[in-house]
Amino acid sequence: MSNATLIQLLVFLGLNALIALVTWLHCRKATRATDDTKEYFLANSGLNWAFIAGSITLTNLNTDTLVGMNGGQMLLISLWELSAVVGLFLLARIFVPLYYKYNCTTVTELLERRYHNKHIRATVAAIFLLGDVLIFLPVMLYTSSLVIKAMFGLQTPLIVLAGGIATVGAAYAILGGLRAVAISDTYAGVLVLGMAMLVAVLSLNAVHWDFAGIPAERLTLIGGPQSPIPWTTLLTGMIFSQLYYWSTNQTITQRALAAPSVREAQKGVYAAMIVRLLIIPPIVVVPGICAYKLYGRLGDATYGHIVSQLLPHWLLGAFAAAMFGAVMSSYNATLNSSATLYVCDIHQKYINATGRIRGLSVWLQVVFAVVSIALVPAYTGAASIIQLIQQLIGLFSMPILSAFIIGLLFRNVDARAVIATIVFGAVFYALFAFAWPALHARDASWPAPWHFLHSMFLTVWACIGFALALNRVGFGRRAAFELGSRQAWRAALATLRA
């Protein structure tokens, strides 16, 4: 091992050890709750706004974001991050007060309270679990392993790197619960954002801050019909996609639910919103655009390649520590939220309401980690990992979002109608987003398929219509529009002004 490589390794280990030490010291001083559920999953409602903002930011900012978005090598991709500001605003102003009003530990608990039925809560929790274990966790491991392998020129198989990352990342979630996850996220977040901004600046310096020669379609924010994000999708499925992710996603909202008050939770979400608006867009598109001018089209290998070429050799260890912190943040956050969903929404409701929380959660997270490692090879052939994730999410995100919309806007809706609607919505979306493009590819006489974000938009409205029709025809109940009364409008306006 050369001296340079040894120094990089020592810096990498030293920074990660420092984050772990600071996290342990902070957790040791915290007041513990006697309720295992509240302590392990909600940090005894002890997270202040800074830790909420830091954890929300870094939970979302993972290597799949840096790798996938920079892999697009165009400015248009930043629309995902800019539109996320709307999702965070809706979380702060509408959903956080609702979750606290109903004293929720999980987002699905809100569905149980609104529909007065535990089965819809368990159904949605099971779908969330499948998405976490089969999609999000293995993708995080795949993209982080890809970056580290490209950055250091390693010959180690991706699945071996993924196993090492998963082992360390899971330790935070398993040993410390949400408190350790949120605190480590925040401290690692400072390092991650700092290093990512440095990479963006170095990329601009490499092209002399001049984008001349780069095709115009890679520098526009107005996407055409054939672009990854046509501008019309901003009026249809984009907002629904952001509303689902930021306001009804357990992994994100669990941080806001761990505050001592609604006000503190909202402050944390607003701080995350400012970071999302000002800092995240440049770090997820600038290196990719510059790499296109310097090296041509590289796809998902873009970020790792430009880092290895431009970052000073002596800083590679610090950058690796930052990327490791990013993946650990998202990985352990998703593990913790997955365990929360199973324990609170399924195990305690159907199997054992008084069993030991910590022991069960440990075994669950070990199993989830092993499964996610095994699934890493399934994603190695994806042409664009970020596009693949967004398409797959639609299978369950829009049907679940429609369940929240119906539950919040209507009363007297039978939960069985909504459960059936979730199945209907998944099939409906699959026909438009997967079956239709496949038919068009085989037979050009079929009309060209819509963008999957348009399919998301249509899926939400189809689900709402299907649920209300089934509720009336199949279960003999007439839904009442809850915001139709003067009292409801006054309550809604009071919530927005609060």
Question: What key attributes describe this structure?
Answer:
498 residues; mainly alpha; Sodium/glucose cotransporter; two-stranded antiparallel ribbon; 2 strands; globular
Task: Please give a quick description of this structure.
This protein has 498 residues and is mostly helical.
What would you note in describing this structure?
By secondary structure, the protein is mainly α. It is built from 19 helices and 2 strands. The protein folds into 2 domains: 380 residues, Sodium/glucose cotransporter (Up-down Bundle), CATH 1.20.1730.10; 115 residues, no CATH class. The protein has a two-stranded antiparallel ribbon. α6 runs parallel beside α16 and α7 packs across α8. The mean pLDDT is 85.
Helices, strands, pairings?
Elements lengths: L2 H27 L6 H7 L6 H12 L2 H10 L6 H23 L5 H9 L2 H35 L5 H49 L30 H11 L2 H7 L5 H17 L1 H16 L6 H9 L5 H36 L5 H18 L10 H25 E2 L3 H28 L9 H22 L6 E2 L4 H12 L1
Antiparallel strand pairs: 1-2
Helix pairs in contact: 1-8, 1-14, 2-8, 3-8, 3-10, 3-11, 3-14, 4-7, 4-12, 5-9, 5-11, 6-7, 6-16, 7-8, 7-13, 7-14, 7-15, 7-16, 7-17, 8-12, 8-14, 8-15, 9-16, 9-18, 10-14, 12-13, 14-15, 16-17, 16-18, 17-18
Number-wise, the strands total 2
Helix content: over 70%
Task: For the record, give the distance between the C-alpha atoms at the N and C termini, rounded to a whole number.
Answer: 60 Å
CATH topology call of the largest domain: Sodium/glucose cotransporter
Order of strands in the sheet with most strands: 1-2
Shape type: globular
